[in-house]
Amino acid sequence: MLNLILPRILLPQNPNVCQMLNLISWRRSIFRQPTNPRLSTQLCSSSIFSIVCFLCHSPSKEEIYDQPFSRATTQPPKKKSKSSLSVRKNQPQKSTNKTSSDNANQFPVKSDLAFDFMYSYSENSPDVQPIGFREPPRFSPFGPGRIDRKWTGTCAPADHKPDFEKLKEERERVLGEPLSEQEITELVEKYRHIDCSRQINLGKGGVTHNMLEDIHNHWKRAEAVRIKCLGVPTLDMDNVCFHLEDKSRGKIIYRHINILLLYRGRNYEFTKRPQIPLMLWKPYAPIYPKLVKNVTDGLTFEETKEMRNQGLTSPPLMKLSRNGVYVNVVDRVRAAFETEEVVRLDCTYVGASDCKKIGVKLRVRGPLSFIADLVPCVPILFKDEQIILWKGNKKRE
Questions:
Q1: Which residues are registered as beta bridge partners of 231?
Q2: Residue 316: which pLDDT band, with cuts at 50, 70 and 90?
Q3: For tag attachment on the chain, is the N or C end more exposed, with fewer CB atoms within 10 Å?
């Protein structure tokens, strides 16, 4: 039918028409035919007409060039006069870089902070010495030659001993007069909500070094910062609060479960904040002594095996979730040890690394017991993401 409608004169002039006709005849069986015959004739005639118009239309040379949306300006560009150039040369250039940025670009950075630089302050301790390293200690996470301190593999110790009296006076000067109850309620109502833009998430790394710079960046435009704590550090919130106040020189004015508000002080000045060099990457955790021994101290091999089997078969005391809030874990374990000898914590979705960190924080003595005695217990088994805790002998307590 298409061959009858098309004029025979167009076929030799436009060879593309013949190719299009062959394609249409080949793909004719794919198209669905409408049930109504009137609609079919109308659709066929309209589609054929549009195809004919498209094929018969030959683009001209003017249409080949696609003009831009904005027309080109025909006027020549204006030449700058010599007087304006001379005036600009005589004007002094504005200094866009601040003193803080200038000091940051000067290497090595000299910081007046009196504490040792570590990746995590709340989850690590300089008193615990590792037995090995997963990367050479000479590779500093601050970068080569960027700070005036030497990286030992776990921290960058300060060169001089801190003057605690001077630090205390400086902190009191920055904080100023204590806030009244009305001022505290206003700040809490402003920053405690979920939709607060001035928030920092504290994860399993705890109070990290780069978090201090984030806190000061928020303090540049806000009086307080909302800190949301999740994961292993929530086992000991007192430890987290201590390091936040000690390292940032601020004050916590609000604490509810895992939500903290850190206040900067009345006399805080962003330009006079302490210089904090940033870590360029996260250093690998060093190798520490074995956490769980084959034979627990104070027990024989058979007694240790019996305690482990008893713990695996006992019902779990709690079921912990990944990156959850573990504020009530310590109280629950202490209450359970009053009646039971072995306790099992179900950490199916927590992860193997977090399980060991939880066991380290809950134990009493050992090479990794850098947290003050939270619970008088000894971890005796980590298996299938299950923590088995033994309350220990009375002599050890």
A1: 325
A2: very high
A3: N
- pTM score: 0.69
Tell me the pLDDT band of 296, cut-offs 50, 70 and 90. confident
pLDDT digits 0-9 by tens, 203-214 = 989 999 999 999
What are the structure tokens assigned to 114, written together?
Answer: 């009196």
Cα–Cα distance for residue pair 11/9, rounded to 1 Å: 6
SS3 content of the chain, % helix, strand, coil (to 5): 35, 15, 50
Q: In what order do the strands lie in the sheet with 378-383?
A: 318-319, 342-346, 386-390, 378-383
Neighbours of 267 (CB within 10 A): 12
- Counting other chains too, the contacts that 327-336 makes at CB distance below 8 Å and 24 or more residues apart are 327/234, 327/235, 327/237, 327/257, 327/258, 329/235, 329/358, 329/362, 330/235, 330/236, 330/362, 330/374, 330/375, 333/362, 333/375, 333/377, 333/389, 334/375
Name the DSSP class of 363: B
What six digits make up the tokens of 279? 């870590």
Q: Taking 80 as the threshold, does the pLDDT of residue 188 lie above it?
A: yes
Neighbours of 218 (CB within 10 A): 21
CA angle 185, 209, 280 (to 5 degrees): 135
3-state DSSP assignment of residue 231 = strand
What's the CA gap between 8 and 5, in Å, rounded? 9
DSSP string for 339-356: T-SEEEEE-TTT-HHHHH
Which tokens is 380 given?
Answer: 């005796």
- Tokens in use for 117? 């630089």
Task: Identify the bridge partners of residue 147 per DSSP, sorted by sequence position.
Answer: 109
Q: Rounded to whole angstroms, what are the CA distances from 342 to 1, 301, 307?
A: 90, 16, 7
- Average pLDDT in the 361-373 region? 53
End-to-end CA separation in angstroms for the chain: 101
Of 315, 339, 310, 330, the C-alpha closest to 376 is: 330
153 φ/ψ sector (left φ>0, alpha ψ -120 to 50, else beta): left
Nearest to 225 by CA among 180, 190, 186: 190
Q: Is the dihedral of CA 16, 17, 18, 23 positive or negative?
A: positive
